[in-house]
Design brief:
4 helices; about 80% helix
């Protein structure tokens, strides 16, 4: 696997994590069929891509990056789509997560 492919797979896994996390909102407690199936599919794709990326990446780094992408992305969707708070404290906290994810990426592989 090329040195950048695991990171690309991990990025895609994080994007699918955002999809399934947001999808949970639309399932209404898994009482709606199509949103539930879409959410389940996004979850399976996310976990599969994470697992494949772990063939080449350290588990602690990959998992933290995956969670970071999902957390920041889901919070941004919450702000933009659902009108959740965009307070200064919340945005600074998201920035800290992004900085941590970037630091983990930079400390794991060369530029």
């Amino acid at each position: 696997m090329s040195s950048q492919l695991p990171w690309l797979l991990l990025l895609l896994a994080g994007l699918f994590e955002i999809a399934w996390a947001v999808g949970l909102k639309y399932t209404e407690g898994f009482t709606r069929l199509w949103p539930s199936l879409g959410t389940g599919a996004a979850l399976l794709i996310s976990i599969t891509l994470l697992a494949v990326s772990l063939k080449s990446l350290p588990v602690g780094t990959a998992y933290a990056v995956w969670v970071g992408i999902g957390a920041v992305g889901t919070a941004i969707v919450g702000i933009v789509v659902f009108g959740e708070s965009a307070s200064t404290t919340r945005l600074l906290s998201l920035l800290l997560i992004v900085m941590g994810v970037a630091g983990l990426k930079l400390s794991t592989s060369p530029l």
